[in-house]
Amino acid sequence: MASCISVSFIFIFTVSVLLISSALIRPTSCIPLPRTPQFDLDLLLIGDAQSVDSASSVQFTDPGASSSSSGLLLRTKPFRFPISFSTDFVFSISSHNGDGLALVIVPADFLPRFSRDSFGLSREKKFFGVEYDTFMNVNVGDENANHVGVDVDSLNSVAVCNVSSINLVLSSGMKVHSWVDYDSSSKRLEIRLSEFGSPRPYNPLLAYQIDLGQLWKGKEVLVGLSSSSSSPGNSMQNTIVYSWKFSLRSIPKWLHSEPLDPLRSSPKWLHSQPADPQEFSGEKGKDIKILDNIVWGLMRFVFVLIFAAFVVVLLRLVLANGGNQVNVVPAKGSTNPGDFGYQKVNMVVDGGLDDIKH
Ligand SMILES: [Ca+2]
Questions:
Q1: Is the pTM of this model over 0.70?
Q2: Which residue in 10, 31, 173, 296 could disulfide with 45, CB within 3.0 to 4.6 Å?
């Protein structure tokens, strides 16, 4: 009987904990975005985000929600900094009260902490964001309700630009196009914004120096577009994204500030030792060393063969010259006195020897 009561207590306790947890924790739905040419693949719809207009666009918040609403369009492929990225998206924000839209980079395990307010980031301590803010929150230092801001671990932006300076109103309901580029070598972030249909502006609306590699310290991150609104008693802001492209660019390895090693540019078989011990360590290193030895052995063997052939040819030439020496020197051209015949010439001298003496 006692054990039965204990089991019942554990069951009731467990159910109660689950019910309370489900009430406290933001329920999130993860729905793949239908494949459309306006969006990259591998995207998930989180929270109140849903595809609308035959999956041609994404609506982030639920205008009919009673209290607050938030939605996230999340790219499911994690990545790590340092890396460069370029992204652009077209969106519209209705003129109702709401936070606007944000490009967010969050830890790879962020989803359980996605919330209903503050672009879904109120329960996340580590994030990077570019906010298109349409609500003036004095508590985080917002200067107006129409600005672009750069957020690092806080919605109190580290850099801000008034969108009114380019004669745009984010919450006008009109489509706008934004480009965000980050170069990891120069550590420069650039944000551009224009009315939809206009060309990409040459000058960024906001540029900011930030080392995202230092911020994330090699941790896996995810990127997404997020929106939230809370306006009890009033109709809520409706944020729609019509297209989103995101691409990463790695830094070429040779651009890293490593000392220049001239041995790297020559074939590996020229080295008796590997140029980079780490690169050729382990079994791979052993294989390459064996290959080096084989190539070196073959080169020595070929060299010996060539040398031997040269010596043989030279000897044959020398011997050949010695055996045919008579034939080589023409007989008529001989200067050897022994080759000439002698003929005795008899001279008759009148007067005898005495006449000669006189
Ligand atoms: Ca705000």
A1: no
A2: 31
